[in-house]
Design goal:
heterotetramer, A mainly alpha (about 220), B alpha/beta (about 210), C mainly alpha (about 60), D mainly alpha (about 250), A: about 220 residues, mainly alpha, 10 helices, elongated, D: about 250 residues, about 0% strand, flat, disordered N terminus
Chain lengths: ~220, ~210, ~60, ~250
């Protein structure tokens, strides 16, 4: 079997498990929807103000929703011994880890991208801005899954890992937040989002290269 | 052939064992015994390459396992304390996915046939969380049936198994050894494998 | 060579005394407290080591 | 902090007494540079035309910022060496540097706020440097918290090393992203980069304070690494035979 089919096997397994545990998946999606919807209630219904804060609110909510789902990325596999078997598989562990991260994005990142325009309408974003918002989240949420995986692997089996993972990963999310929310803002203010989006894409390329490698190192430490 | 020379294991501040030497050849198996906490599981995790080696060397056909990488992982089948099963998936799905992760394609029919051999015919489509402890262990042991690895490292494989399953596992081990395989097995009870006497390896507290 | 005319002027810092001395004071405090904490940490380790050794000696 | 003199000193057993001998020298250097720098900065340097006497805060502010960034890189370097070559001493050095680095990051934020109030009329501005310094402070806290949460010191070393290396790749990315973000949102803030060109005395004073902080960091690292060695190697023969342990 080729390396790619092993990658697909991991993705398929994680998707199957997620499908059978719908409540956990839906929790982080609902969290995203509710957090975003609470902002107008806290700030007031002035559309001008809402339009201005929309990119930041949506992006911060996406960060927090991703954090919420990070804890279960490796914890179950660690507890039931699947992670050991993955480490013993005759393919590079980084490939399997990449599969898990990809599945994590499909389950917790992609739904955010798809629901974001609906929430953007609540904030009176124009159709072009909604498109840029979706595009920025499409490039940005995989980045969040990739960087988050490092934090999740480092805190695996560690006391208070749930809180610690936020402390470790949120500072590393800063560039994604700046370029992601910045893209939408730039589009609204008529400056064009291309620069922000290409930087976001560059970061994604960098993370695709480095993050599975760092995550694999952290997982091997946890397995020792 | 697996050769272990001058192996030492340290956990935290404590030295569990040191200067451990043994070898295992084709058609042979080792019965590893010892009290709780002497380092049986640590030793097994070192043998399969999960835990780092403190001192000493583990060689597979003369080459240190560190430098073999994937080739060594292809030669080893490890069953630890945990069953490595996903509770949400069915027995059949668990078997297929487990094989696929190890790079072996296993169809649904082939998986069902293996499950029938471990005595789980008719339960292929049941999520694993509905199975008993012993049945889960059987699903985990079905890994031995698709594995092509010559070296089996089994940590307490007989736990939670009933007499029929114990007999099945002993027969499976006997067949594996007869085909030129090797095995290292920990268990607290006596294990008899037809036509094969075990090398006894007993770890004692240092 | 010294820029200031009087001690009072020096401490007033041209009206910025609070900010300047707040900064320098915080730095001085941090740079003094850290070694003290480390000295405490060291003496605690040494004390517990001595206790462990004396127990070991008693056993022999 | 310095290259190891010979490989012999790469073991805690040999480094412990060496560090003990080095500490007084670095203490002396800290005091000399500190006294000289403060003399120039507080007593000799003339006032600044635009900022009045308030500008004197930069003598500590800039030095603390430099040290916080420098120490993060040094920490990541030692952590990486510890991870790559499995040398205990390097990992201990990384753990020993982190609290001092975090302290300088905090001092940089604190003095930055005290500078900002009289100059810009507010304690905090989302200036690119202050913002990235804040994130650097969080990175330090994450490293310290991760190491504190893991009981097995060897596992803590390795996990911390991966985090430090990921962090060190991220520091420039974070810095440039924040700077870009800041220029795009250019509001009322006056950037620190617009500080007036400095007189020679001022520059010299600032460098001397930075040197003082550097020497101080070496002293703290050596003191802390000695304590860490005693804690981690408590069951070894060489610790039991130290004259401070068994008089």
């Amino acid at each position: 079997m080729s390396a790619f089919s092993v990658f697909l096997a991991v993705v398929r397994r994680d998707l199957l498990v997620a499908l059978r545990r719908k409540s956990e998946v839906l929790t982080s999606l609902f969290f995203f929807v509710i957090v975003v919807s609470l902002f107008p209630l806290g700030i007031g219904p002035e559309m001008d103000l809402l339009r201005k804060i929309a990119p930041g609110v949506l992006w911060v909510a996406a960060l927090l929703a991703t954090m919420l789902s990070l804890n279960r990325l490796f914890a179950n596999d660690h507890a039931d011994g699947s992670l050991e078997q993955m480490a013993l598989a005759p393919v590079p562990l980084g490939l399997l880890v990449g599969g898990k991260i990809f599945a994590h994005w499909l389950v917790s990142g992609l739904p955010l991208v798809l629901i974001a325009p609906v929430l953007g309408i609540q904030f009176d974003l124009g159709s072009r801005a909604l498109g840029v918002l979706m595009l920025s989240l499409l490039l940005g949420t995989p980045l969040l899954s990739l960087i988050g995986a490092i934090g999740a692997a480092l805190t695996l089996g560690v006391r208070g890992g749930g809180v610690l993972v936020s402390l470790l990963t949120l500072p590393l999310y800063v560039p994604a937040l700046i370029f992601g929310a910045g893209a939408v803002e730039a589009d609204i203010s008529g400056m064009g989002a291309a620069g922000h989006l290409s930087l976001l894409g560059g970061l994604l390329a960098l993370a695709v290269f480095f993050a599975p490698w760092a995550t694999t190192g952290a997982l091997k430490i946890a397995l020792e | 052939m697996l050769t272990v020379s001058d192996l030492a294991c340290v956990r935290g501040d404590r030295r569990l064992f040191a200067g451990l030497e043994f070898a295992i050849e084709a058609r042979n198996w080792i019965h590893l015994t010892g009290e709780n906490g002497v380092g049986k599981t640590s030793l097994m995790r070192m043998l399969v390459g999960l835990a780092p080696v403190e001192a000493g060397e583990i060689r597979w056909h003369g080459t240190p396992i560190r430098s073999l990488g994937d080739d060594y992982r292809r030669a080893v089948c490890y069953l630890g304390h945990h069953n490595a099963l996903k509770e949400e998936l069915t027995a059949r799905e668990n078997l297929c996915v487990g094989a696929a992760v190890s790079g072996i394609a296993l169809g649904d029919d082939a998986a069902d046939a293996l499950l029938a051999r471990v005595g789980l015919a008719g339960r292929e489509q049941l999520p694993v969380r509905f199975l008993s402890q012993g049945q889960k262990r059987r699903v985990a042991l079905a890994r031995l049936l698709w594995s092509e690895a010559p070296l089996w490292v089994l940590d307490e494989p007989f736990v939670a198994l009933d007499t029929a399953a114990v007999a099945w596992l002993a027969a499976t081990l006997a067949a594996h050894l007869a085909e030129g395989g090797m095995a290292i097995v920990t268990s607290h009870q006596e294990v008899t494998i037809a036509g094969n006497t075990a090398q006894q390896l007993r770890l004692v507290r240092s | 060579m010294i820029y200031w005319n009087s001690v009072g002027e020096f401490f007033a810092m041209g009206g910025y005394g609070f900010y300047v001395w707040g900064s320098f004071g915080a730095c001085a405090a941090a740079l003094i407290v850290e070694p003290l904490l480390l000295a405490k940490r060291r003496s605690e380790v040494l004390r517990s080591l001595q206790r462990e050794l004396s127990i070991k000696d008693d056993l022999q | 902090m310095r290259p190891l003199i010979t490989w012999k000193y790469a073991s805690p057993q040999h480094f412990y007494p060496l560090a003990g001998k080095l500490i007084p020298w670095f203490v002396a250097l800290t005091l000399i540079f500190g006294a000289w720098g403060l003399w120039l900065g507080l007593l000799v340097a003339p006032t600044d035309a635009q900022q009045g006497e308030g500008y004197r805060i930069i003598f500590v502010h800039v030095a603390a910022s430099w040290m916080s960034m420098f120490l993060y890189v040094v920490m990541a370097f030692w952590a990486g060496v510890g991870l790559g070559f499995n040398t205990r001493l390097s990992s201990m050095m990384a753990s020993a540097i982190a609290p001092t680095g975090a302290m300088f990051a905090f001092l940089s934020l604190w003095t930055g706020a005290l500078w900002g109030k009289p100059m810009w009329g507010t304690w905090w501005v989302w200036d690119a440097r202050l913002t990235s310094e804040l994130i650097l402070f969080f990175l330090y806290l994450g490293f310290i918290a991760l190491q504190a949460a893991i009981d097995d010191p060897r596992r803590a070393d390795k996990a911390g090393a991966i985090l430090a290396l990921v962090g060190v790749i991220n520091v420039p990315i974070i810095y440039f992203s924040v700077m870009w973000w800041n220029t795009l949102h250019q509001g009322a803030s006056v950037s620190l980069t617009k500080a007036p060109s400095m007189a020679r005395t001022m520059l010299l004073g600032m460098l001397l304070v930075a040197l003082c902080f550097w020497m101080y960091s070496i002293v703290m690292t050596l003191l802390r690494v000695r304590a860490i060695m005693l804690e981690r190697e408590r069951h070894t023969e060489w610790v039991a035979n130290l004259k401070e342990v068994r008089p």
